[in-house]
Amino acid sequence: MDILHSQLATLQQRLSFVATDPIDWKFYVQVSSWAVTLFESYLLLRQYPLYSKVAPPKVLENHFDTAVFRKSQLYGRDKARFSFFIGLVKQVIDSALIFSGFYACAWDLGGKITGYFGYGAEYEITQSLAFSAILFIVSSLPSIPISVYETFVLEEKHGFNKTTPSLFITDLLKNWVLGFVIGGPFLSAFLYVFKWAGDRFVPWLMAFLWEEPRLAFQISMVILYPTVIQPLFNKLSPLPAGELRTRTEALAGKLKFPLKHLYEIDGSKRSSHSNAYFFGLPWSKHIVIFDTLIKESKPAEVEAVLAHELGHWYHMHPTKLLCISQVHIFTILAFFPAFLHAPQFLRAFDFSAEVASRPPTIVAFLLFQMILTPLEAFVSTGINFISRRFEWEADRFACELQDRLGDPEMENMGDRLGRALVTLHVKNLSTVWVDWLYSAYHHSHPTLTERLKALESFKVKRDGDVKKEL
Question: Are strands 284-290 and 259-265 parallel, antiparallel or unpaired?
Fold first, then answer.
C-alpha cells in the first residue's frame, strides 16, 4: 500500500502545475467539448450520404425487399438528422451553462436550501446532495421535449413506438424517483469515503467502487430488480412451456450455465425493437427474452441468439469489461487529487474565493470530468473496439457449439444465428450501410455485414477442418 501511495504522490508532484500555472480551464473545456461535438457531427456527415443508397450490400440483397430497405434508409436518415441537431443543441446548452457560471450559482443555491433547514457550510455532503438535485432537475428539463419528440414523432413515424402519453409520464416520474432513492445514498457514501480517507482516498475509493456497487448491483439485480424495479416498467413472466423453453433449458444444461429462471418480458409494451439478455450472480443466472424476439424469430433462431449470449458468459466477457472499467476508474481517480487541491481550478469556473479555497469534492470532480471530455471520447472508442472483438468471439462460440458439445442438435448454429440477426435488423429497420469511422467511434457491435461475413468464414474454416480430419 505504501508503494502505491508513493507512486500516486509522485504523480501529484508532476501535476503540481494545475495549482500554480495560470490556465484558463473554462476556455479549455469549451474548446475541447466543442471539438468532440464537431467531430461527432463530422462523423454523421460521413454517414449521412449512405442513406441515399437504393440497394443493400450484396450479402443482404436476398434478405431485404425494396420497400423494407427503403424504410430502413428513411429511418436511419431521420435518426441521423435528429442526432445531428440534438448534439449541437445539447452542446450549446452545456456551453451556455459553463459560460454563465451556472455551476457556481447552483452550489450557492444548494447552500441556501440546506441552510434554510439549518445545515451550514460544514455539512458538505448535504449541500452536495442539494447541488446534485439542482443539476439533475435543470439537465432534465431540456431532455423532456427531446424524449417526447423522439418517442412520439420519430419512433411513431416509423412504427416502433408503443408508449402512450400516460405511460411516458409515469416512466419519467418513476425514473426520477429511482434516481433520487438510489443515487442519493450512493453519492453520500462516495463523498464520505473521500472525506474519511483524505489524500489517500484512491485505494479506499477503488475498494468502495469495486465491492460496494458491485455487491449492491448484484443483489438488486437478483432480488430487487426482477421483483421490485423491473415490474415498475415491464412485466416479467415465466417463459411458457414449449419448444423454445425446452431448447433453452437443454442448451443451458449442456453448457453447465447456472440457469435459475427463464423469463419473457413484454418489451412490446413500449417498442417493437427486440433483445435478449441474462443477469445474476455467478451461481444463479436469469435469462430474459423480449416477446418481440419470440414473435419475430423461430425457436431455433432464438436459441442461436441465446447461444451467442452464453458465449459472452463462457468467455467471461462481462468480467473482463468490468476489469477494464476498474482500470479506467483508477486512472481517473489517480489524476483527480491534483485538481481537488487547486483553488484556481474552481476560480476559473466562477466559484468564489471562499468556496475555491476549500474545493467541494463533488464540484471539483464534476469539473474534472469536463476536463476529461476528449480523453473519454478516445477511451470509449477503445472500449468499443474491445467490445466488438467480444461480439465476434461470442458469434464464433455459437458456431462451434456442435463441435464443443459433440451434439448434432447444435448443427447449423451459425446459419441460424445469421438468420436471426438478419430478422432483427429487418424488423428493427437497422442501418446496413455504415461508414467505417462512424462505426468505430459509435458502435459496440460489428455491423450486420461484418458479422455475416465472419459467420461464413467460421463455417468455411470449420468445414475445412472437418474435411482434414476425414
Answer: parallel
pLDDT at residue number 467: 54
Confidence of residue 219 (pLDDT cuts 50, 70, 90): low
Strand-pair partners of 281? 284
pTM of the full predicted structure? 0.85
- Whether residue 175 lies inside any domain: the answer is no
Chain centre distance of CA 456? 29
Full DSSP string of 136-192: HHHHHHHHHHHHHHIIIIIIHHTT-B---HHHHHHHHHHHHHHHHHHHHHHHHHHHH
Residue 214 half-sphere exposure toward CB, CA atoms < 13 A: 14
Catalytically annotated residue among 296, 395, 435, 450: 395
Active site residue 211: no
Q: 176-181: which pairs have CB atoms within 8 A and are 24 or more residues apart?
A: 176/140, 178/229, 178/232, 179/136, 180/133, 180/136
* 449/432 Cα distance (integer angstroms): 7
Residue 303, C-alpha cell as written in the block:
436459441
- What percent of the chain clears pLDDT 90, i.e. is strictly above it? 49
Give the CA distances from residue 443 to residues 382, 385, 435, 448, 453, in Å, rounded to whole numbers and listed in that order: 11, 8, 11, 11, 17
What is the domain count for the chain?
1
What is the structure's pLDDT at 274? 73
Give domain status of residue 167, yes or no.
no
Sheet holding 276-281, edge to edge: 236-238, 259-265, 284-290, 276-281
In a domain, 436, yes or no: yes
The domain that holds 437 is classified in CATH as 3.30.2010.10
Range(s) of the domain holding residue 403 = 236-317+384-469
Domain membership flag for residue 269 = yes
Does the pLDDT of residue 468 top 70, yes or no? no
For the residues 222-234, what does the mean pLDDT come to?
68
Question: How far does CA 428 lie from the centroid of its chain?
Answer: 19
* Res 196: pLDDT: 79
Annotated active-site residue 309? The verdict is: yes
The closest alpha carbon to 359, from 150, 104, 143, belongs to: 104
Active-site residue, from 40, 94, 303, 309: 309
